[in-house]
Amino acid sequence: MKKILIASVALAALSPLGAAAAERTLTISVYAFAQDDFKTLVYDPFEAQCGCKLVVETGNSVERLAKMEANKTSPVVDLAAVSMADALAASRAGLIDKIDTAKLANFAKLYELARDPNGDGMSVGYTFYATSIAYRSDKMKIDSWADLLKPEYVGHVAFPNVTTNQGPPALYMLGLALGKDTPDLKGSIEAVGEKKDDIVTFYEKSSQLVQLMQQEEIWAAPIGRFSWAGFTKLDVPIAWATPKEGQTGGMNVLVLTKGSKNQDLAMQFMDFWLSTEIQTKLAEKLVDSPANSEVKLSEAAANNLTYGEATAKSLKLIPSAIALDNRAGWLKTWNEKVGQ
């Protein structure tokens, strides 16, 4: 009888209840974007693989970074997905740890610009996007970012407000084209300010541009590649510009919370997210452009994303330190010269 009881206790320890008691929890902080797809393609498969529970917190960057700061001495989040600049801000605030990339089996597969975006070893890029100009190819020709301000074109242009994700990158490239390439973006903001009464609108959301293009209220606008799909459905000829100065864009990265007790599990999740299989699935669903260079996409997906080695090498991203150190100045100059 005693042997039977011992055996019963041993079986209980192996039961689902016993397993649940030992289940580990990984908490991640991410953008609210496409969470249904992420659950199906990333979260559920990882839980099945690791035998752990994934807790997902969403919100905008300001809210999520503020929470990490508030819980700095006793971290709640283990891993976060943020922008390049926010990763540097988190690093400066002592909120994140250096990533041991030797533990990432998929690290070598990443495009070079995604391996250490801020040059400090504190983040790894999981997706990036190009920013260029969508334009009516039957109405105009775009060879340079400066073409947006040509007298014959400027009255048909929508330009992103400086407070949007696309504003500073577009101003950065316009500055290159005008020979006014300074971190304060003063030259390009002043040039836009001189044409502010001609420009159709300084947009806040790219979703409003498709309708403006359809109604022929605008012919051109700087946009992120993630917004391109909507333009391709219009019944007017639209092209994606490849200006001689190049394209700009942005990148989102993964970071490890400093002091997290689950960094080994967070590293496993990071590696899973960066794998060729997962990056391919996300790209084919048009959720994210792949940072993994081994991803091969269908023509339909490739045409709607930032894809390929040549594109990755051509992107001129604003260095995070410049963005962080100049944001307040950009807004001040914009309000003075453009007045939005």
UniProtKB/TrEMBL annotation:
<keyword id="KW-0732">Signal</keyword>
<keyword id="KW-0574">Periplasm</keyword>
<dbReference type="InterPro" id="IPR006059">
    <property type="entry name" value="SBP"/>
</dbReference>
<feature type="signal peptide">
    <location>
        <begin position="1"/>
        <end position="21"/>
    </location>
</feature>
<dbReference type="GO" id="GO:0015888">
    <property type="term" value="P:thiamine transport"/>
</dbReference>
<dbReference type="Pfam" id="PF13416">
    <property type="entry name" value="SBP_bac_8"/>
</dbReference>
<dbReference type="GO" id="GO:0030288">
    <property type="term" value="C:outer membrane-bounded periplasmic space"/>
</dbReference>
<dbReference type="GO" id="GO:0030976">
    <property type="term" value="F:thiamine pyrophosphate binding"/>
</dbReference>
<dbReference type="GO" id="GO:0030975">
    <property type="term" value="F:thiamine binding"/>
</dbReference>
<protein>
    <submittedName>
        <fullName>ABC transporter substrate-binding protein</fullName>
    </submittedName>
</protein>
